[in-house]
Automatic annotation (TrEMBL):
Residues 37-83 are annotated as: Disordered. It comes from the Bacteria. It comes from Virgisporangium aurantiacum. Residues 1-24 form the signal peptide. This is Serine/threonine protein kinase. Keywords: Signal.
Length: 233
């Protein structure tokens, strides 16, 4: 009887060991399948250019090395050429000049006496939408050859059609101290004519003639060289 009981115990132990071995085998098989699935997923991710499983996704960026992303606005070129339109408004009661660069513009309109205004604003896609002080505005179009539109200055409305001009024609501006005096003014040079207004210590009048060969003008006995007007960046 003792031998029979021992045989039963041994048989039970062997059965338990077999069961545990079977479970271990199944677990190992499932783990292997999981590893194979993960490897297949990683390979598929690499094929389509996505981050592999277990690796952090690359951070997105709107550009590379400071450049605009594809489809975004182009970077502004501070050295881009300036296109300037200048001439008399319709009726020849005043002159207007418009300088355009990188989709931005600055404009000046004056009659050489009391009427004058500086304006600036967008000029992209061939459209002009400029504004200035006291309700001044310039709206219209430009195409690299001619600028056409309407200007409102000092409550008066003017229409214009002015051509693109080359240096020394164009628009000149000064805003500086000259011989201890505060000086502000502008010159429109086109078609062999000049129109300009100069304000010295708050007193305005016709601007002295600008030497188009040297770009110089004498103000309060001092020779200065007004720069060409620059559109806003």
């Amino acid at each position: 009887m003792k031998l029979r009981g021992l045989a039963v115990v041994i048989a039970g132990v062997l059965a338990l060991a077999a069961a545990l071995f079977g479970l271990a085998t199944v677990a190992a098989s499932e783990a292997q399948k999981d590893r194979e699935k993960a490897a297949q997923a990683d390979q598929a991710a690499r094929t389509v250019g996505e981050p592999a499983a277990g690796t952090p996704a690359a951070s997105s960026s709107s550009g590379t090395d400071g450049l605009a992303a594809p489809g975004g606005p182009p970077p502004v070129d501070p050295n881009a050429p300036i296109t300037t339109y200048a001439g008399k408004v319709d009726g020849r009661g005043a002159s207007i000049a418009i300088a355009v660069r990188n989709g931005q513009a600055i404009a000046y309109m004056c009659d050489g006496a009391k009427l004058e205004a500086w304006l600036q604003g967008p000029a992209g896609d061939g459209q002009l939408a400029l504004t200035g002080k006291n309700g001044a505005s310039v709206t219209g179009t430009h195409d690299g050859t001619v600028a056409i539109g309407t200007a409102i200055v000092a409550g008066r409305t003017f229409t214009f059609k002015v051509k693109m001009v080359q240096a020394p024609n164009g628009l000149y501006r000064i805003a500086d101290k000259v011989a201890a005096a505060a000086v502000n003014g502008g010159w429109i040079v086109a078609d062999g004519e000049q129109t300009g207004t100069l304000t010295v210590n708050g007193v305005s009048g016709a601007a002295p003639p600008l030497n188009t060969e040297t770009g110089e003008v004498t103000i309060n006995g001092v020779v200065v060289k007004p720069p060409r007007a620059q559109p806003p960046a």
